[in-house]
Structures are given as C-alpha cells and as structure tokens.
Amino acid sequence: MSKILVVDDDPAVLKLVQRALRQQDHEVWVASNGKEGLEKAQSLHPALIICDWMMPYIDGLEVCRRIKADPQLSTTFFILLTAKIGLEDRIEGLNTGADDFLSKPIEIAELQARVRAGLRLHQVSQDLQTQKALLEAELAEAASYVSALLPPPLQGEITIESRFIPSRQLGGDCFDYFWLDPDQLVLYLLDVSGHGLAAALPSILVLNLLRSRSLPNVCFDQPAVVLAALNEAFQMSHQNEKYFTIWYGVYRPSQRQLTYASAGHPPAVLLASTGSHQLRTAALPVGMLPEADFTSAQCIVPESGTLYIYSDGIYELNPSAQTAWGLKDWLQLLTQSDGSLSLDQLLQQVQTANASHSFNDDVSLLKIQFGGTSSEFL
After folding, report:
1. Quick one: 231 and 355 in the same domain?
2. One GO MF term, please (predicted)?
3. Is residue 195 within 8 Å of residue 186, measured between CB atoms?
4. In 82, 102, 207, 355, which residue has its Cα 20 to 30 A from 175's Cα atom?
5. pLDDT of 347-363, one tens digit each?
6. pTM metric for this prediction
C-alpha cells in the first residue's frame, strides 16, 4: 500500500481520484488547496502527489517547486493535473520539477496506469537513496579508518603538527613521521594522483609499507633508496595508472642534519633566521618510469628552524582563474609568516586570498619545529 496525496480545489475531482486509487488499495489523502497540500505533504511524506495546476492562492507549479526543494520530499513523484496541453505549458511544468502530467477530464484507466508507473519510479528513487546512504556510511567509516592511521602530533625537542583535508570523504594524500632509532626521525608526505577511494587505497598501502618497514632490502634512512624501491613496487602500469609524488626526509638531531629526496613533489620549505630555503630534488613522480633516477640532498637545520611539507592542493585552488593562486603565492605566504602562524591560520589566509571556503584538491600540511643549538644552513 502506497501513500498518495491528491490536491485539488474541485471536490468532485477529489472524490473521483480518491475512489479510483482506493480501488488499487492505496492510502489516499486529499487537500482542497495548495497551502493545505503542502502542510499534509510535509507531515505525511507521500510516495506520490497528484496536484491540480490551476488553484487560487498557491497554484500547482508553486506546490511542485516547494515539494522538490524540500530534501525530505524531493523524491516524491509529482503529477500535475491540468487542462493545459500546450508544449510550452508542459516544458514549464517539467522545468519546475513535475515528473508527469495528467489531463482533464480524467480518464480513470490512464490515471491508474500513470500512478502505477510513478510509484515504480519512486521505489527506484528510494532504493537509490538507500544505496547512497549505505555507500556514504561505508565511505565515512573508511575515512575514519584513514584518519586513525595518520600520526598524532609530536611533542618534545621536535614538535610536529598536521592538517589533512580531503576534497572528498577519502583522498589520495597521506603522511607519516616516526623514529627509526633514537637519532633518526623519518618525515614524509605523498600525494596519489586522482581523488576518492581509488587514490586512498594506494596511499594507505604505501603508509603501511613504510611504517612497518616492509620494503625488502631497503635502508629507510636513505631517502633516494626508499624512493627507488617504491618506484619499483608501484609502477603505474600495474597500479590502475596511479602514480604519486612524495617528499621523504630523515632528520638526525645529534648532527642537526636533514637528508631528503623528492619525486615530483612540491618543495618543502625551511624557514630560519637565515631566510627561506626550498628543499627539493629533481625526479619524476613514483611509478611513471621503471628507470627513473632518485637522488638525495642534505642540509643542516638552523636553530629554531621550521619546516613545512605540503601537498599541491594548498596552492591549486582556482587553476582556471585569470589570477590563479599558485605555488609562488603560497611560498610567499610561508616566508611572510616566518613560522609564527598556526596551521589553521595559514589555511584561513589561503582561503581568504582565494575567496574560497573549500579546497578543490586534497590538502595535507605538516609543520615541523626544531629545537637545539645554532647551526648554519648548508
């Protein structure tokens, strides 16, 4: 039994339609005007509404418009009952949101057939909504799992805070930091091409491989070696055409030495009293070519230096705009901040500069602050 609402200011029409639909064992409710019809629709949530077009106060088009604008009623199948049969009238009705039309005077057989067809389509819409809700719940659960994998803030002589903002529920960015031993801290951030689940799965796999140190015959304190091993294991021809960029570094507090390598990734930025320094090595993204070469570089981290590692979503907000925000603007913002702004303040300034409340791509951002004695940048 389906719940149907009939809205018409003609009592004879209401009785006719009500009797015909009850013969099909439907639960039929009636309303004598548009205002009453909207009130009953909001309380009853019918599967189908048959509404007269021409009514005083609130006509059928306005009723349809409000029904379709209500998230709780938007899947309700809406039939406009009308004596208007012109093409322009039907186009207007369809543009308003009507799903079907029924002409006056009413033919009972046609009425019953259109109602049966409308209820079938409504059931399909309901099934799709149910599947969508289940999928969203599963994606939310997966997103919670991914968030749980990311490391908590690091406190102590070295402090690390992070932000992860996927463009969808799941994203292709991933990062981690952990101690190989008491004097070697691994820091990395990677960005898998694409978005959503297809990008999230490889990033999680890489994180688990690096965290568990499961790459065979690899010294994880040698960034170029790690990237070469990842490139061998994740060729895009075997990974559904997915590749990823990565910045990988190892910091040794006893020497204040940072060894790093990158593959197609934006430069990390080291801020210190000596100025702003971009840390990057030239290489293709991981997975693009089997014979790709990777090299490492080193620097000495100055006293109270601050290192930023990030994904390109932080500066690729409006790529089609004439005055698009770019890497140069982001680097300038970091330099001007001099490490004094929190990550939330930095993100807010980026969004303000772009008049945007959301990012188009996944955004990951790490801020590493180093303590210790003074040294010189090499």
Report:
1. yes
2. phosphatase activity
3. no
4. 355
5. 999 888 877 667 778 89
6. 0.73
